[in-house]
Design brief:
Structural class: mainly alpha
Helix content: 55-70%
Number of helices: 6
Shape: globular
Length: about 160
Amino acid sequence: MTPQWYVGRHTLDDRPSGTTPEPDQRTARQIVVAFVAFQLFGAVAAAAMLRDPWPVAPIAVLGGLISGVLFDTAMLRPWARAYGERIWLLMFFPWAARRTPARVEWALHDAYRPSRIRATARATGWPVRHVYAVCALSLIAALTAVGFLFAGVGLEASPE
């Protein structure tokens, strides 16, 4: 007997086409732009923390939060369209969505599979190598800035 709380829930096999929904061109471009913006805002925030964090760092952190939420909503948009759910419901309360399979909870994890990254880069309509290069450079910039921040490079020695 199926438990009452599970009635009406879907399984992985109930996906519309049996595959992960792919983004359209507009959504793929939003994913790429939000990803790059998130990385660059993170790099600016980390670099600002090395010297004088006010007022640049709070603005960069706020920009990073906004671009992070935009990235998440763009990643979930194909799932929301496929299942007729609201994006915000899928983002914050995926277990509460009525027509959504449990697989949607893993939608953001699917974003980092190489096949999903290739499909998103192709869906943008931009040259794929350029998309890869811009995403890689923004990620390198963010990791470098955060690395310098944790290493303490550029920080003045505190007087003792």
